[in-house]
Amino acid sequence: MDKQLYPVLPLPPNEYSQEYLNQLVSALEIYMRQNLEPGYVRGSTMALTELPTNGGGLRVGDVFDDAGTLKIVRSTDVFSGTNYGTGSVGSVTVAIS
Question: pLDDT by residue (tens digit) across 49-84?
């Protein structure tokens, strides 16, 4: 990958310099901004550990492990999770003849 895409950290001076500190903070801000932006990812290996087992509560684009199959949460997915409820309205009479 082209090394020019990454910020170059300035070499520290022998003594404290406000200019050096400003350059360092600027380079770190660029790095953090690049790190948070979505973009192309390329690698030869990957380890995904302790993935959730369903998409409930995840954001669009998050990955989860569905019984050994990696899945990605899409905006059209609906995950109901596990919900239980009881209720009643009026009464019911059952007649058997």
Answer: 999 999 988 989 999 999 999 999 998 888 865 556
Among 54, 94, 45, 43, which residue's Cα sits nearest to residue 77? Answer: 54
The residues, ordered by sequence, that sit 6+ positions from 56 with a Cβ below 8 Å of its Cβ are 79, 80, 81
- Any idea which residue has 């910020």 for tokens? 7
Cα distance from N-terminal residue to C-terminal residue, the chain = 81
**Alpha-carbon gap, residue 6 to 35, rounded angstroms:** 10
Rounded CA-CA distance 8/4 in Å is: 8
Contact 76, 89 (CB under 8 A): no
